[in-house]
Amino acid sequence: MSMKSLVGRKKSRRMAAFGFSAALATVNTHAALAAWPADKVIRIIVTNQAGGPTDEVARLLANDMAPLIGGTFIVENRPGAASNIGITAGARAEPDGYTLLLAPTSITVNPAISEKVNYDPVKDFEPISLAVTSPVVFAISPKLGVTTLAGYVELAKKDPDKLNYSSPGVGTVPHLAAELFKQRAGIQMAHVPHAGNAPAAQSVLTGAVQFNSGSLQPTQGLIEAGQMVGLAVSGAQRWRGLPNVATMTELGYKEFVIESMFSLFAPAKTPPDIVDKFAKAAQTVLKRPETVKKLNDSGLEVVAGGPDVLRARVAHEVPMWRDLAQKAGIKPARQ
């Protein structure tokens, strides 16, 4: 037998073996899909403690997706390390269709501000749905005597060392939004981080700070009560509950759409058919009128975007937050 014939036979055997392995993998995948979700529990990992918007969205999805998928859902709270613990748990889970992650914006922010990030927001996840978003609200005390963002910028330029601002914590979306505002407006404000939105807003009421960058809750209620003056929202559109508060874009700050987002992911390599079923179920639930109203009342804008929408959002935000953190001088923290 010639050397050429021998090489040809070995190549044919390898190709046959490869074909058999591929066929076997396909059979196994189809068998797994046929059995899924069987009688196993599907868990949704939440990166925060019970309560709060992330947990609320996860529990709503868990309850309403169950009859559409045909399985039993539970919510598993894995808080800590600025959401890194829960996100990492989602990234390391088996891609078998029985683990999902409901992640806040931290999934795209943390790589820019934390030294210990054990996941890649692009490579380690399969996007399912960009569920909801929520804008940041810039608000001040009525005692300052100004009622517009332009008026506040003028005041800040006159007294560059006298103004400070509160946020719900270092690395939060409101913190980063305020830093972007400082850069774009050319003003100085000292950052006073707080442990949550409520104490951050309270600091404006007590006079400890002059400016608050926070979430819609509790800021919206304080603005409606006249205890704070709403200067701007950072969403793409005005918030329905604050129709008289303009967006940053309307006020001349181009490309200033900064929102918190709450999104559903599966671990990378989860079978595409399963990802598709989750995506369709999530969008069905999120588009129901009663769901939209409930989430709107909690200060959340329903997007119900599918995998492609979420994939594009993640690809956009990862470099955006990194660039913003670098320009703001926010050094990666050890968590």
Structure description:
This protein folds into 2 domains: 36-133 and 260-328, D-Maltodextrin-Binding Protein, domain 2 (3-Layer(aba) Sandwich), CATH 3.40.190.150; 137-233, D-Maltodextrin-Binding Protein, domain 2. Helices cover 46% and strands 19% of the residues. The protein has helices at 3-35, 53-69, 84-92, 106-113, 149-158, 173-185, 197-206, 216-224, 272-286, 289-297, 307-328, and strands at 41-46, 72-77, 99-103, 125-135, 137-140, 164-167, 190-193, 211-214, 229-233, 259-267, 301-305. The strands form 2 sheets. A 6-stranded mixed β-sheet has the order 2-1-3-10-4-11, with helices on both faces. The protein has a 5-stranded mixed β-sheet with strand order 7-6-8-5-9. Helix 6 (173-185) links the parallel strand 6 and strand 7. The longest helix is centred in the first third of the chain and has 33 residues, at 3-35.
Features:
D-Maltodextrin-Binding Protein, domain 2; alpha/beta; about 325 residues; five-stranded mixed β-sheet
Short description:
Helix content is 46%, strand content 19%. By secondary structure, it is an alpha/beta fold.
Q: Could you give the order of the helices and strands?
A: HEHEHEHEEHEHEHEHEEHHEH
Lateral arrangement of strands in the main beta sheet: 2-1-3-10-4-11
Dominant shape: elongated
What is the typical, i.e. mean, pLDDT? 88
Question: How many domains?
Answer: 2
Weakly predicted, low-confidence segments: 15-32
The appropriate CATH architecture of the largest domain is 3-Layer(aba) Sandwich
Distance between the termini: 65 Å
CATH homologous superfamily designation of the largest domain:
Bordetella uptake gene, domain 1
The biggest beta sheet is recorded as:
6 strands, mixed
User: Counting H and I runs of at least 4 residues, what is the number of helices?
Assistant: 11
Name the assembly state.
Answer: single chain
Helix percent reads 40-55%
CATH level-3 fold name of the largest domain: D-Maltodextrin-Binding Protein, domain 2
Radius of gyration: 24 Å
CATH class call of the largest domain: Alpha Beta
SS-derived structural category: alpha/beta
Strand content: 15-25%
The number of distinct β-strands equals: 11
